[in-house]
Amino acid sequence: MRPALRLSPQLAHAEAARSGARSAPRFFPALPARLQSMRLRALLFGTLLAATLVAGPVAARDLTVRTEAGSVKLTEVASGLQNPWSLAFLPDGRMLVTERPGQMRIVGRDGSVSAPIAGVPEVHARGQGGLLDVAVSPSFADDKLIVFSYAEPTAGGARTAVARARLDADGLRLEDVRRIFAQSEDPSGNHHWGSRLVFARDGTLFITLGDRFHSRERAQALDSHLGKVVRIAMDGSVPADNPLVGRADARPEIWSWGHRNVQGAALHPQTGELWTHEHGPQGGDEINRTRAGLNYGWPEVTYGREYVTGRKIGEGETRAGVEPPVLQFTPSIAPSGMAFYTGDVFPQWKGNLFVGALKFQLVARLVLEGDRVVHEERLFTELGRRIRDVRQGPDGHLWLLDETEGRILRLDPA
Ligand SMILES: [Ca+2]
After folding, report:
1. pTM assigned to the model
2. CATH code of residue 363
3. What residues does the ion ligand 1 have nearby, CB within 5 Å?
4. Which label site among 6, 111, 180, 277 has the fewest CB atoms less than 10 Å from its CB?
5. Which domain holds residue 353?
6. What contacts 329, CB < 8 A, 6 or more positions away?
7. What is the pLDDT of residues 238-281, one digit of tens each?
8. How far is the CA of 401 from the centre of ligand 1 (A)?
């Protein structure tokens, strides 16, 4: 294997700015976050900053925006979170939320934020790493099982790992914590961990795994977990029908390969297929139907270009045997979080795919016809905040994680 490339400070900065952990808003950098937020809204609504301050923070925390489906209100349900990364609904409507520095909390239906849940393993909270995704088992009502992903510290560096645990929601404890997956390599560097978790309809678990940035050529190596989507059972075993099972040269957990950094994944509500999106480098963010045994190209086939130099990467934008994306974004929006909308609260949005964006600070609403995207609307650019996660709640509302300000937002018809 070639030695891993070291990331220059300039490149590291470019990458961190795109998809990383920055929590400060870009606007008015001399002001504290809350004042920045108020000032932005003051500008948006054509009111004075002083008037907003007098009006008090509560009213100013909500925002009504126009969309093609009419006016929509963004309601702040909870705040005070530190780099929130993932939101998962419990059957009773409460939410599990992860904070990248290493805390998991429960947020009540009234927005109350709990103390940290005990029992979360130590995480490597550096760069884009830390405590990442969380998902609730389809059989949670019976077994109280959850799964979560994190950057696991190792002697040599860190790697993406996934654990399962039983949640004592009232005791705020994780019990019987068992690691069920760890990436095959633990390269240095703090970028591109993946790692969304999605349960397939058969109860197996999809895990998306980044290329760890310095090791991108390993995304094409079938003896490596870098740059892959894998599929395992809840006990960590390999399902017998995984596509590479029985091949001596391949890791049997692999479902698909040639991925760069997948931070959004969801099951298509009709077909049950896994859809994902991934960060391109400079250009070439992708949305993919992520099917068994297929190569998604990175870093040999991509629409993206190198940071700083702008040089082409790999051999081109398409190649026989490489699955093309459903949609690619150039320039990159830096996608994170993804949900198909199936609720009744916004009937015009039924069947649409929603994708959060960090760098472009928006939510992309994608209208699908079969596997094709036939229309895109860019929502909530007025908000100007990094959207880390997009989820549909059991109440049929869409919910957002505002990473910049550490808030949970609910979308309501206005
Ligand atoms: Ca691709």
Report:
1. 0.88
2. 2.120.10.30
3. 286, 296-297
4. 6
5. 62-413
6. 280, 283, 284, 285, 286, 335, 364
7. 999 999 999 999 999 999 999 999 999 999 999 999 999 999 99
8. 26
